[in-house]
Amino acid sequence: MREGQARADLASNAGARGGDLALQAAAQSEHPAIAAAARAIAAHKDVPGALMPILHAVQHDLGCIPAEAVQPIAEALNLSRAEVHGVITFYPHFRQTPPGRHVVEICRAESCQAMGGERIAAHARKKLGCDFHATSADGAFTLEPVYCLGLCAQSPAMLIDGVPYARLTPKRFDTILGYVKEDA
Ligand code: FES
Predict the structure, then answer these.
(1) CA of 165 to the centre of ligand 1 (A)
(2) Chain-wide mean pLDDT for the chain?
(3) Cys-Cys link to 26, which of 12, 38, 67, 141 (CB 3.0-4.6 A)?
(4) Report field, pTM of the whole predicted structure over 0.85
């Protein structure tokens, strides 16, 4: 199905019986953002506060929330595009562009800060050559802050691609990064 038709069907019919059919059709769209939005809407449109789970689902699916996903989500939930865009830009967790091949999330919460987290953050910035919310020049790593991973007793801690690593030192950080890059 063509992107425009999928988007139009999704927008005009969401919520009704025809909407379910349109969502199924849009989920097969060749446009990844339209397809991901349709899948997320179909899965979450009936839950209270559906916007957040839909946005999380799209980002989980694509690694980001492309601009093309905003309109179908807005229309399915009877919101304006500005409202959806406002939520996406309010939460730093949501990305509008694809991340690097790996996502490094360094804990910036209190326990980790007290145990040398700032030194790890500074080292990570230098090592990757980018700041938080940015991607290394080779596209390998996106650096993100995160706020407590439940590993406070083993601070400082981070996630790489969702895998936790604790008791970090700059040297250990470099070693872990090397493993991750080799596995890619
Ligand atoms: S404060 Fe970093 S894991 Fe809890």
Answers:
(1) 11
(2) 89
(3) 38
(4) no
First vs last Cα of the chain: how many Å apart?
A: 34
- CA 22, 64, 165, 175 dihedral sign is positive
DSSP-assigned letters across all residues of 127-156? HHTS-TTEE-TTSSEEEEEES--S-GGG-S
State mean pLDDT over 32-54.
Answer: 94
pLDDT of 15 reads 47
**Span from the CA of 92 to the centroid of ligand 1 (angstroms):** 18
CB of 107 closer than 6 A to ligand 1?
A: yes
Quote the CA–CA distance of 100 and 76 in Å, as a whole number: 30
CA–CA dist 101, 125 (Å, integer): 17
- 18 pLDDT higher than 70: no
Tell whether the model's pLDDT for residue 134 goes beyond 60: yes
Rounded to the nearest 10°, the torsion over CA 93, 120, 183, 137 is 70
Strand order across the 134-135 sheet: 134-135, 141-146, 102-107, 158-160, 163-165
The one-character DSSP state at 135 is E
Question: In the structure encoding, which two tokens stand for residue 149, read together?
Answer: 């991973």
